[in-house]
Amino acid sequence: MSQFKEVVTLRAGDADGNCMVARVDTAQGRRIHAIGVPQDNSSRTGPTWAYLFDNGGMTLIDAGATGSYEHLANGVEATGFQVRDIERVIITHGHQDHDGAAGQLAQEADAEIWAHDIYARLLQYNPWDIQRNPSSPLQKEMQRVVSADKVGNSGEAARQSAGYAERQRRYVETRRRFQVSRNLRADDAEGELTFLHAPGHSPDEICVTLDGLVFTGDHVLPEITPHPTTKARFSAEIRKIMPEHYHNEDEYYGLATYLRSLRLIANLGEGVAVMPAHRLFSKGRFNFETTRRAEDIIGHHATRLGRILHRVGDEPTTLEHITRGVFARRKLIGGNLYMALSEIVAHIELLEDTGDLEVSEDMRLRSMGSENYKQLISELG
Ligand SMILES: [Zn+2]
Ligand SMILES: [Zn+2]
């Protein structure tokens, strides 16, 4: 890639990049260390990539998952630096595979935590509770389908989700004690870094640009399409602590929001290289992408919107029927069912807003025969 002068593997990890440490030298000569921090629960996304570089002080972008601090510290040492050299950790968004190890790092390194302005305000809450607080009849229907799912509620799946729930509880507990030193806003800058607010996968997601690169967190990933949020409504409690300019949740949640934020990254220009938080390396090779990847993800969702609309057709049908038609059976087992359903709900919400689809009171979906969503996609910015 022309954005890079050199890419050196400092420590080989496994084929998916777990425990790998690499160095990417930018065309401007800056050394960026990429550390593949394993997650101790099995995750389809693979390790979290943390990035360490000098920008008027050693800066780390993302810290890795809850329980992964030792892996992170070990990776930092393999770069030739020490944990105590780190002056600040920038968190791309408040999901446990990114900030789970940040508290321990901040403590050991005496480092500052920086994140988007919304991040600190939501620290007291489990991010998934905000999403699961159903804000529409369609979201209630989604929860009804999940609880009625016999396969998902049995044996191993239930044990797994119990383990998951325990992990989330520990995570939220730890996070409550974080001290955020700097609340970043869109277009803030620090030295050579600029910050972009890119909500949609998470309301507090930021992307960070440096030397013709953009660190995208989970906003833009190679190989996999990040999970968009469904629309959300803050509880009365959250509304009370949120300044008024954050009260329009539709600016921070949902597929349309996510697509707008993808356009923001695509508009950085084609020559900008993506440094993702997952899948930088997998199946034994690097996945170097440019901002064109953001364009491809927009295309993926455009195709999926069309496919869902086509499947809905003009005979009334159900959310469950559509979801089971779009996803393969193996992707609908256990916790995956919720993810698949919410992915479909995110698309249906957008199609409802554009008037292409109607959800009746008895939760039947019907196509209106229009394809207004295409205009929304073309007018993203
Ligand atoms: Zn995430
Ligand atoms: Zn992630």
Give a verbal description of the structure:
- By secondary structure, the protein is α+β, with helices and mostly antiparallel strands.
- The protein has one domain (4-378): 4-Layer Sandwich (Metallo-beta-lactamase, Chain A).
- It is 36% helix and 21% strand.
- It has helices at residues 69-78, 96-99, 102-109, 117-122, 127-132, 137-148, 155-175, 236-241, 255-266, 292-312, 319-326, 335-353, 373-378, and strands spanning 4-11, 21-26, 31-37, 48-54, 58-61, 86-90, 112-116, 180-184, 189-190, 193-197, 206-210, 213-217, 273-276, 281-282, 285-286, 289-290, 357-359, 365-367.
- The strands form four sheets. The chain has an eight-stranded mixed sheet with strand order 1-2-3-4-5-6-7-8. A six-stranded mixed sheet has the order 9-10-11-12-13-16.
- α9 (255-266) packs antiparallel against α10 (292-312) and α10 (292-312) packs across α12.
- The model has no long low-confidence stretch (mean pLDDT 93).
- One zinc ion binds at residues 93, 95, 201-202, 218.
- Residues 93, 95, 201-202, 218 line the site of one zinc ion.
* CATH homology superfamily: Ribonuclease Z/Hydroxyacylglutathione hydrolase-like
Order of the strands making up the biggest sheet: 1-2-3-4-5-6-7-8
Q: What is the CATH-assigned architecture?
A: 4-Layer Sandwich
Strands, total number: 18
| Largest sheet geometry | 8 strands, mixed
Bound molecules: zinc ion
Q: What amount of the residues lies in strands? A: 15-25%
Helical content (DSSP H or I, runs of 4+)? 25-40%
Q: How many domains comprise the coordinates?
A: 1
Distance between the termini: 27 Å
Structural class: alpha+beta
